[in-house]
Amino acid sequence: RDPLSRGPAAPLAPASPPPPPLSGDLEAGEAEFLTNGVPLDTLTSFTPLQRQFNAEAGFSTLASLLQHYPRDYLHYSGDWNDEEFICSQGVVSRVKSFCKGAKGFIECCVCCDGGNEVTIKQWYHFRNYRLAQRALKGMEARFPVDSIVGFKGKLKRRPRGGWDLTGTGVEMTPLDDFVQIEKQIIAVYPARGPIKSGAFNKLIRKALSVCPVVDLLPRDVTREHGLLGHREALEGIHFPSTLEHADRARRSLVFQELFLLQTALMLRRHQLQTPKNNVDAKGIKVGESRLLGHATSRLPYNLTQAQGRVLGEVIGDMTNPPPMMRLLQGDVGSGKTIVALLAMLSVVDAGYQAAFMVPTEILATQQAAKLEEFLGSLGLEEAGFEVPRVVVLTGSMRAAQKREAMEATASGAASITFGTHSLISEGVKFLKLGLAVIDEQHKFGVEQRSKLQSKNQPPPHLLSMSATPIPRTLALTMYGEMALSYIDESPPGRHRVETTVTRQDDARGRAEAYSKLVREVQAGNKGFVVFPLIDASESEDFASIRAAEDSFRDLLENELSGVPCGLLHGRLPPEEKLQAQRDFVEGRTRVLVATAVIEVGVDIPEATCLIVENSERFGLAQLHQLRGRVGRSDRRSHCYLLTGGAESSHQRIKKMETLDNGFQVSEMDMALRGPGEFIGTRQAGQSGLGALKIADISRESDRETLEEARAAAARAFGDGEPKLGKELLLYLQNQSPVPYLDVAPDLSFHEE
Question: 3-state class of 518 per DSSP?
């Protein structure tokens, strides 16, 4: 019995028999394929050398090899054109072989219809000279003079007439075997480790010969969307009969991959929202709040329509027992924070605590000060409300301060706690945590969010926020277990940040940018200068890239002479980083020279000018985030993006002059760089995006398939309890495409 539950213990129900193992009715090969995967080193169809190469290339299981998909296809025809692929036949007029050391070649001259003569040369590598000599003589005997052979490869016209067959895809075979390769579509694979591109056809054909027939999708989903079965789709993508066949096979595999991902995300949401005991079942319900109504009425401005809509979605989630799991996206300066603060007040009014986790200490202090100032303007005591106590908890606090903040949080004396990663440390406890808010959520991982939710029983409601808008399809892939909210309009009165893109070597444009920065400082404002690197690199690749530490000294002596400047980058000791930010916030320095660490965590209303050196080193979405460090008040602000490198890079950055909407910026950035680079390799690996082997959500067709797969997964999942097939559940239990998914072994499944 849960020790926190109230009332007498309920009588124990008679023990029920354990559920049968999900793999009970499956063949041994099918069960192995669905659980840990079939190890390649146990398959006798591969030679010892092939098994060694597979291991060196990172292919440990049958599925990992079969998921090495083609990057292109060669379509062979019977037309004789220079630099094109041909598949034809002819009569051998001459044949010879040559061997030197452990390698050699066989060369055939073949006469074909239309007076065409082609010389076909195939090179081979062997273990030693004797083996090479014997093998080449044997191959020479397969193509005697006057025999008919079939061949395929890339044609190269000779200057004096005739043709050569070249390239790695050259193939020649006696006519009896030629029927098998005539007019084939040949898959072209990316090389990997010691395995060359041309060797994959043979390896994957062997892998397919032992691949069990296992279909993870419900049959009605396969029929409704016109999909091929899993085994059939694998054969179709690796060995298609036509290009249309390859396209259908790819769509089937993309659909399955995205369906599995969305099902896993829905399962994770189901797990997090399913009560594990009586306390969880009771949940945290936040009813109608008088404090929320009072605070909203005393705001010095009206909430935008988008803010009001999102606040309603958040409050609506919190009126039900299951913990809210919502991702709030909004452009820089769209007013996400006030929505979160109002939601926290409604939770406090219901008798619970709220936690607000941010990536930097200075931001935690700033947000806490903002809330205290806001609470002071509400006249709470005069209106009969108790003023909520706000505390800050960060790693650099003195021991006595930290102890006091932790005691206030644990006893419930503190209603709202702002902090950094310190909030999820083991020693931090809450009395009744009702709402956890995570700002700049992309700076935190799934495990860190889970730790914050584990600070209370039942789990608190969770509101994650991001000022880096993520395209919808990418959000569904990474955060499909969360409900999505968007603030897609800015508060009135905000001015557009004027953006100018100029070449790094344009002396006039560069002087204009720094002259503007100095004038802004002289007018009482502040500014930033951002560099892509901390110090100069010895690598030739970065020889032309300006670095923060080296340029800081140059700027103090030249462009920013006489201007109080500070330096901030990731390698500084924590206390120096914090001091640099404090000096800037409190006005002791007026210009902050930094790397991209200022992308989040610095809120300076007086900042009106930003210069980014070597801006081509940043993605568009990151530049938009950096640009959000200025223009955070009603003062007119300016952004100068200085570019080096190729003209194509300059033109890419030039788009920032007209792009002002963060959602448009992120869509274009993802299209230009791809989803993995858009969000970063580390974050991609920690999300469902890291599980995608064939789906590419930068492709419009795959984005459409994602929407279809998500809808199909929702229908298959069912209302409330999951209704999934045993094969699918067995796969998700052992090979989940998302991290931290724990599929219960006794989870009910739906028999078709």
Answer: helix
CA–CA separation, 531 and 538 (whole Å): 17
pLDDT above 50: residue 364? yes
- Is the CB of residue 312 less than 8 Å from the CB of residue 483? no
Range of 138-147, 408-417, 659-668 with top mean pLDDT? 408-417
With contact defined as beta carbons under 8 Å apart, do 502 and 517 qualify? no
Identify the band that residue 228 occupies on the pLDDT scale cut at 50, 70 and 90: very high
Give the SS3 label for residue 30: helix
Beta strands in 215-334 (DSSP E): 325-330
In the DSSP assignment, the letter for residue 216 is -
User: 3-state DSSP call for residue 23?
Assistant: coil
In the chain, how long is the greatest CA-to-CA distance?
A: 108
Residues composing the chain: 752
Show Cβ contacts of residue 540 under 8 Å, excluding neighbours closer than 6 positions: none
CA distance 433 to 415: 9
Give the integer Cα–Cα distance in Å for 461 and 273. Answer: 10
Q: At what angle do helices 472-479 and 700-717 cross, to 10 degrees?
A: 40
* CA distance linking residue 46 with residue 65, whole number of Å: 12
Q: Report the predicted TM-score, pTM, of the whole model to 2 decimal places.
A: 0.72
Location of structure tokens 């050196």: 613
Q: How many CA atoms lie within 13 A of 562 on its CB side?
A: 6
Residue keyed to tokens 């700027």: 555
Tens digit of each residue's pLDDT (9 = 90 or more) over 64-93:
899 999 988 877 677 788 888 887 888 889
- How far apart (Å, rounded) are the C-alpha atoms in residues 143 and 177? 13
Packing angle, helices 361-376 and 336-349, rounded to 10 = 60
In 3D space, the residue among 584, 549, 553 whose CA is nearest the CA of residue 566 turns out to be: 584
DSSP conformational letter for 288: -
Residue by residue, what is the 3-state secondary structure of 625-669?
Answer: HHHCCCCCCCCCCEEEEEECCCHHHHHHHHHHHCCCCHHHHHHHH
- Other CB atoms within a 10 A radius of the CB of residue 103 amount to 14
Q: What are phi and psi of 437, to 5 degrees?
A: -110, 130
**Residue indicated by tokens 């914050």:** 452
How open is the CA angle 83-85-87, to the nearest 5 degrees? Answer: 145
CA nearest to 88, candidates 177, 171, 182: 182
Instruction: Using DSSP, state whether 182 is helix, strand or coil.
Output: coil
What is the distance between the alpha carbons of residues 636 and 622, in angstroms, rounded to a whole number? 21
Whether the pLDDT of residue 474 is over 60: the answer is yes
Contact in structure between 611 and 530 (CB atoms under 8 Å): yes
Give the H or E element holding residue 601.
none
- How does DSSP classify residue 108? E
